[in-house]
Amino acid sequence: MLRIYRIDHIAVVTADLEEQAALLEGLFGFEPTHTWDNPATGVRGMRLRVPGASGQYWVLLSPADSGTALGRWLEDRDGRPGLHHVGAEVPDLDAALAEIGRRGLEITDSVPGRWAETSLSPPEHGPGVLWRLQGPGSTSMLGDEAARPAPRRAAADAPTLGIRGIDHLCQAFPDRDELAAWYAELAGFVEVWRTPEGAAPDMADLVLNIPGSNICWEVITGRGEESFVDRFLRRSGPAAHHATFEVADWDKALAACVAHGVPTFGEEEGVTDGAAWKHTFIHPKHTGGVLVQLFWEQRPGVWVRSDKIASFRSM
């Protein structure tokens, strides 16, 4: 079994590092901690701490030119930014590589002895979500060997979302049970919640705990050929669909969106076990290429156990 004991970061590739960093600092309240410009690897980057949760980082990567792997990745997307990979640590990189080979997964990029990049989805379904796996003893898998502390910026006047942490990443897949069983056998992911069959007319989902991480993994499956999930799968394959953040104060989070001129859509609310919850979405064009879900819950645990019906069907 491939053992993941810590998710290090979520990485987004963008052509304009400074513009994206300003968005993440201003609206999301992310705090830049390190920056780097590595001509040898052709990568510029910035690591930003996600507020409210220890050890959660959002990473921005920008290619030096179109001839690099990241440059070609952007070209394939017509220059559109987007989520590139999830970075994680494993206790033994060689053992992880052996398991990856046994499963027939392809290594798409690597630095021997330090890190390797692969999709952890069943190979017969396509590329899926990329993961960068590193072993102990190395903290560099982003071209950030010579990273330096990021300069402190002046405090912004506009409010931030008041994020408390990354709750989960969501992946679209043709069969939620097939992918859940695959992740359980491959890496020990544990199912913690699911919507009942038929709870929503065009989708079903479940949530998996990743051992050693407070970031969970959601799997959404379409019900019907014209469901929003099936449209997404035809367009993008079994890729990451959205990232979900918890906010501390719902009204303040929405006010921050208004202050920054960022619209939301698909807002829903409900009550579970006497406690309220709410959620909404921000389109990728306003977040740097990633569909973002925001949620608030009056008491911990009521939102994920609710009978909500997701509202991102237009994506």
Task: Note down, in words, how this protein is organized.
- The protein is an alpha+beta fold.
- The chain has two domains: 6-144, Roll (2,3-Dihydroxybiphenyl 1,2-Dioxygenase, domain 1), CATH 3.10.180.10; 163-297, 2,3-Dihydroxybiphenyl 1,2-Dioxygenase, domain 1 (Roll).
- Helix content is 19%, strand content 36%.
- The protein is built from six helices and 17 strands.
- The protein has helices at residues 17-26, 69-76, 93-102, 176-187, 228-236, 250-259, and strands at 6-13, 31-38, 43-49, 57-63, 82-89, 107-111, 115-119, 130-134, 148-149, 163-172, 190-194, 203-209, 216-222, 240-247, 265-272, 275-282, 292-297.
- The strands form two sheets. Strands 6-7-8-5-1-4-3-2-9 form a nine-stranded mixed sheet. Strands 11-12-13-10-14-17-16-15 form an eight-stranded mixed sheet.
- The protein is globular.
- The two termini are 34 Å apart.
- Residues 306-315 have low confidence and may be disordered.
Short description:
By secondary structure, this protein is α+β, with helices and mostly antiparallel strands. It is 19% helix and 36% strand. Mean pLDDT is 90; it is low at 306-315.
- Cα end-to-end separation: 34 Å
Q: How many distinct helices? A: 6
Across the major sheet, the strand order is 6-7-8-5-1-4-3-2-9
CATH class placement of the largest domain: Alpha Beta
Which residue ranges are poorly predicted, with pLDDT under 50 across at least 5 consecutive positions?
306-315
